[in-house]
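Protein modeling request. Please complete all fields; requests missing the sequence field cannot be processed.
Requester role: graduate student
Desired output: 3D structure, C-alpha cell encoding
Chains: 1
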Amino acid sequence: MTCRRCETHILQLQIKKRKIQKK
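Delivered output (23 residues):
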C-alpha cells in the first residue's frame, strides 16, 4: 500500500509520462 503523499507523487509521475507519450 502507498501513503497519500506517495500516491500523489506517483500520480504526478504518471501525468508526466502521459504528457511525454502524448508528444
